[in-house]
Design a protein that fits this description.
The chain has 257 residues and is of the alpha+beta class. The protein has nine helices and eight strands. The longest helix has 23 residues. The protein is globular.
Length: 257
């Protein structure tokens, strides 16, 4: 799952958001579904046919499938904090990333997911080593060497940027946080045109996008979550029991553009 606390760009195992005395939990795989929802809302003038790429859509939708089993319940560390990207062992992070890559049913999608995670690993400020890149490169070289040689590099790089972009955008919206000025990168279309994306949170659960960036002027995403009292974090066993028994709820985020 992903966790909202201490989050700027890098993912965590659980997305959580505090609401007064409660904590909201969102699974990584649900966040990835929202990434695809967002991608399909972008104007075709910007995606320029990429919205028909099943390989790209699969990669966006399933880039966090390695977390599905791990996200069955929240995990608490010895200090009483929900495990996040910052406080979990990099070896476990590597394992979950590789599980997402190897679980992909489409080889080309596996390559997109692999390059995405290599980027995250290489740019992480909390990692003391970069073993993941070596592990990933070894796996790719062993299993996809022919596919690599046949790839249209220019097309692949644009698709990879859309995967990165929608992943980040989904994480921001799942957290319902203010959007910093330099947090959202520009996105490049297949024809080389570059689109600056300035997003503004105008009120609770309402975000405004640049005119023409989205297909429709009014859009809605639904975020599945579970909400539990934050005091349960102090009793990990009870937290897991309550999490399993709690019902999934949904909240809506409005997007205008």
């Amino acid at each position: 799952m992903l966790i909202f606390q201490e989050y700027i760009f890098w993912r965590a195992i659980l997305i959580t958001k505090e609401f007064l005395e409660d904590v909201c939990f969102i699974t990584q795989h649900d966040h990835a579904r929202i990434s695809l929802d967002l991608f399909l809302m972008i104007s075709p003038d910007i995606t320029q046919g990429l919205e028909t790429s099943e390989e790209l859509k699969y990669a966006i939708r399933n880039h966090d499938c390695g977390w599905i089993e791990y996200d069955n319940v929240p995990k608490i560390d010895d200090s009483g904090k929900v495990y996040t990207f910052q406080n979990m062992k990099s070896s476990l992070q590597d394992e979950l990333w590789m599980k997402s890559i190897t679980s992909s049913m489409i080889p080309y999608s596996s390559l997109l997911i692999a390059q995405h995670f290599k980027f995250l690993s290489s740019n992480s400020v909390s990692r003391e080593d970069n073993n993941f890149v070596k592990i990933c490169d070894s796996y790719i070289s062993k299993n996809y060497s022919q596919l690599l040689s046949d790839i249209d590099t220019a097309l692949f790089e644009v698709q990879l940027d859309f995967l990165k972009f929608t992943d980040l955008l989904s994480l921001i919206l799942c957290r319902e946080r203010e959007v910093g000025k330099n947090l959202i990168p520009s996105i490049k279309s297949l024809d080389g045109s570059v689109h600056e994306v300035s997003i503004q949170k105008v009120s609770d659960s309402i975000y405004k996008f640049p005119p023409g960036f989205l297909k429709s002027k009014q859009n809605m995403i639904e975020i599945p979550y579970k909400m539990l009292p934050s005091e349960l974090i102090l009793t990990p066993k009870k937290l897991k029991e309550e999490f399993r028994q709690s019902r999934t709820k949904y909240r809506r985020i409005g997007l205008s553009g």
